[in-house]
Amino acid sequence: MQTVKMVITGPFSAGKTQFISSVSEIDVVTTERKISSDAERVKEETTVAMDFGRITVDDDLVLYLFGTPGQRRFDFMWEILAEGMLGFVVLIDSVRPETFREAKHILEVFRGYAETPYVVAANKQDLPDAWSPEDLRIALKIDKNIKVLPCVARDKESVKNVLLELLYSILERMQNEEA
Amino acid sequence: MALKGNLRDFNTSQLLNLINLAHKTGKLTIDGHDSQGVVLYFKDGRLIRASQGSDSKKLTDILVQAGKLSPDQAHAVNSRVPSNTDRAIGRYLLEHRLISRDDIIQGVKDYMLNIVYDLFTWKEGNFVFEQDVLPDGDKLVIPLNLDNVILEGSRRIQESEKLYEELPDLGSIALKITDKPLKDVKLTQDDWRVISHIHPRNTVKQIAQNTNMDEFQIRKIVYGMLQAGLVELVRPDGFVDRRQTPAYERRERRGVGQTPAEKRSVVTKLIERIKRI
User: Fold this and answer.
1) Within this chain, do residues B139 and B162 fall inside the same structural domain, yes or no?
2) Per-residue pLDDT at B219
3) CB contact under 8 A, A174 and B18
4) Which of B100, B119, B148 is the last residue of a domain?
5) Cβ A114–B269 below 8 Å, yes or no?
């Protein structure tokens, strides 16, 4: 059986666990712990190792979705998770500009791990104070060739759209490399 | 769509750059810690009005602050122009030859620029951008190109820590000139010296060496040009990222035995499967 992997990354509390939960056919295997740092006490629990979701395509092919840990002290997990990934999604919390710099840093680190295609998902677009994907593209200086997509991680259709757009980018890259 | 935040997380040059590049029209309000907040208005990405403290400052007050009128002259004008609108005051000043049109424009420009340049030194302050809100019709507006404002404002950022944070390793980055036209932008001689050495092979460190600049100087110049969108950071030609090569090779090894058609087939299957979720 062939397995392929996609990584969902982004700053603390961007919605990575929720994103994977929305499309995974199994309950997301998550290792959450009570938050210990006051600065990061935006939510009660955070992912300390990784999230893990699965989508079975057929008897011979399975897609695994890995979510990176939210807190910086678990950075060492990133490269391990990035190994062999087909592509990655950088999830941004569109209502918390204080996390944009961190999002940019994570994006650059993952770009350094592998030259795989990626997309940026502007999560929490259903909230009134959400920055638009167009504004986020400028704020984070994201190249015009990279897709910046609106996203609501709780909405399955929205998450499907992000994953499909990533797969279209991967397919396009393959076709370009062959040409 | 709302545009709210704090300068602590998204600083003045980033904010102005966003407004500039997105050609936004509207009102930007930034709260100051001593309640001397700033209000800026923009039209199609250009700064058209700035005020600090009160948004209802009269043209005479602005010209006094800019050193173009004395307080006595301003007082006299205010008492003789009952409506006190910018338009009426301006007409009175010109008709009585108290000041030239160019001096009025320059005075208002200086006033606006002082406010904006001061903003670059603010470490924090909540901001909100209200789309499509413009100043009252009687207010004098003077459109200013934000490219130059951002360049000059960024030049005034004197904190080396900040510059180090933005551009940590000069030896592993090169510069690429963007598509933005340079002809309308005021560049210093040093800016041009840096631009003349931009090449995919030259790291920023090499540019500094070639132009006899120290790291702080080159950081300041590159930071200013980055914020104004004149250049972007790229990896130098031939640069090998220690982390990238093994990961890439590992990925290639995984693909051994799979033809391009088979790889495409896997992605196509994934697309079909996700569509069915």
Assistant:
1) no
2) 86
3) no
4) B148
5) no
